[in-house]
Each structure stands twice: as C-alpha cells, then as structure tokens.
Specification:
This protein is α+β, with helices and mostly antiparallel strands and 138 residues long. The chain is built from three helices and five strands. The chain has a five-stranded antiparallel beta sheet. A hairpin with a 3-residue loop joins strand 1 and strand 2. The radius of gyration is 17 Å and the shape is globular. The two termini are 27 Å apart. 20% of the residues are buried.
Length: 138
C-alpha cells in the first residue's frame, strides 16, 4: 500500500514527475536526480516496502530480473565500462529514502565514483560458527 508521505510512492505511481526509463505494473525505473555518474538509475517498486527486510522474495526476484534488462539497455546506450548495483538498508547503510530501491550506477574509466570498504581479517572458525547460526534461520 502507498504511504502518503513517501516521495518514492508518489514518483513510482506517477503523482510526481521523473525521468522514467521504464514502467510496468510493479515497478518504475527512473534516472536519479543527483546521479553518482551519467545515467545513474533507480528501480522503484510501486508498492511501499521500507527495505530488504520488508519486501517479499517474489517482488525482490522480479526487481532483480528487471535489473538485468535495464542494465543491458543502459550499457548499450551509455557505453559504460561497468556497472554497480547498490541497495541501501537503514541509515547506517546510507539509506536516505525509506522506500526500497535498487541503484544501477554506470561506471566509466576515471569517473572517481567512491564505493566500497576496507577489507578486514577473519578467523575461519568464527566464519563457520556464524554461517551455522545464520543458516539455521533460512
Ligand atoms: P538511498 O540513499 O536511499 O539509497 O538513495 C536515494 C536516492 O534517491 C539518492 O541517490 C537520491 O539522489 C535519489 N532521489 C531522492 N529524491 C529524488 C527525487 O525526487 N527524484 C529522483 N529522481 N531521485 C531522487
Ligand atoms: Zn513509498
């Protein structure tokens, strides 16, 4: 259900204007108004899901399936050298609009876009134990 105070509900459902790349009954794909790089796109479900913890697996699957088609179209038009898919959940993870969306960020040689993290050490036994605990919840 749409949230009346949510900007992405309004954009996804066509109540607010956007540079729309594609639309079907479940999603709207738009260009980001403050792009990280030329052609930065967002796939937005029309239904209001707050984040990855809120969305059903079927819709999430359709969203990623659509991402494959959009990414190919973007590569063909933008002639980008690569593309990052980013999806932020929670303030700590950089989410600023609390209506789930997938970022498709085209990458170009020398574009200076910053993504990523510093790699840390791990302990194999701790990895095994953590994997076991999470596995039990799936
Ligand atoms: P987040 O930080 O939540 O993962 O990403 C939100 C994204 O939405 C940002 O990249 C931001 O530039 C974009 N954005 C926020 N408001 C609007 C808007 O009104 N129109 C468009 N096209 N993009 C928006
Ligand atoms: Zn919303």
């Amino acid at each position: 259900m749409a949230d009346k105070d949510c900007i992405f509900c309004k954009i996804a459902n066509g109540e607010m204007p956007s540079a729309t790349i594609y639309e079907n009954s479940d999603f709207r794909v738009i260009l980001d108004v403050s792009p990280a790089s030329r052609g930065h796109a967002l796939i937005i479900p029309k239904e209001h899901f707050k984040d990855i913890f809120d969305i059903d697996a079927m819709t999430a699957g359709k969203m990623f399936s659509l991402a494959t088609e959009v990414a190919r179209a973007m590569k063909s038009v933008l002639k980008c050298d690569g593309l990052n898919i980013v999806q932020n959940n929670g303030i700590i993870a950089g989410q600023t609009v609390f209506h789930l969306h997938l970022h498709l960020i085209p990458r170009y040689e020398g574009d200076g876009v910053k993504l990523g993290w510093e790699q840390k050490e791990s302990v194999p036994t701790e990895l095994q134990e953590l994997a076991k605990q999470i596995r039990k919840k799936i």
